[in-house]
Design goal:
Number of strands: 0
Structural class: mainly alpha
Number of domains: 1
Strand content: under 5%
Distance between the termini: 44 Å
Length: 89
């Protein structure tokens, strides 16, 4: 059994939201390309050392326990920051 750090799971969710890849299943296929170095970059963003990317239903399970409102608040905060950064660029 693989245990994922919460920060890693949050960054994975933000990545899926930000890239707008559609379904998590298509993201699984698109983002597992080793040349993209997604695992390395997610680990750097999250400050973790995970050995593998998560499977499709892991994020659903995490959001079910963390609660959608908490995750929605996090997405809102990050979106607002991106908008502020975009306006000043």
């Amino acid at each position: 059994m693989v245990v994922y750090h919460r920060r890693f799971l949050c960054w994975w969710g933000l990545l899926l939201f930000g890239l707008g890849l559609g379904s998590r299943r298509s993201a699984d296929n698109d983002l597992r390309d080793l040349e993209l170095a997604i695992l390395h970059n997610l680990n750097r963003l999250a400050g973790t050392q995970q050995d593998c990317l998560l499977v499709t239903k892991t994020l659903d399970h995490f959001i079910g326990h963390a609660g959608s409102p908490a995750f929605a608040k996090l997405l809102h905060q990050h979106t607002q920051r991106l908008i502020r950064m975009w306006r000043t660029a």
